[in-house]
Amino acid sequence: QVQLAESGGGLVQPGGSLRLSCVVSGNIFSSNHMTWYRQAPGKQPEEVAGITSGGMTNYAESVKGRFIVSRDNNKNTLYLQMNSLKPEDTGVYYCVLGSMAVYWGQGTQVTVSS
User: Fold this and answer.
1) Tens digit of pLDDT for each residue in 92-105?
2) 3-state SS record for 21-86
3) Buried b / exposed e along 89-101 (16+ C-beta atoms within 10 A)
4) How does pLDDT run across 25-73, given as a tens digit for each residue?
């Protein structure tokens, strides 16, 4: 059974940094595209960053130059390094497995506030 578990969220001041992690069970991590989504209060989830099984990355315009997505296939772990955080980055962050976004984690809350 595929399970995804995010961690690393929290409260941070504007301009600060956080690193999110997502551990994937089920021995299918290395062959799959992975994506970070976030959902702000009252809004639909939006794609933040994605990484292919080969390591190619893509980012939403709103986070380019501030966020870095990476993966460690030996540890079945996806990362999101978030720098220069802004209040509009606040939301629940989900890691998602597969190009069809079939499997989602439970999410981790990120709050950017002074």
Assistant:
1) 999 999 888 889 99
2) EEEEECCCCCCCCEEEEEECCCCCCEEEEEECCCCCEEECCCCCCCEEEEEECCCCEEEEEECCCC
3) bbbbbbbbbeeee
4) 978 898 899 999 999 999 999 999 999 999 999 999 999 999 999 999 9
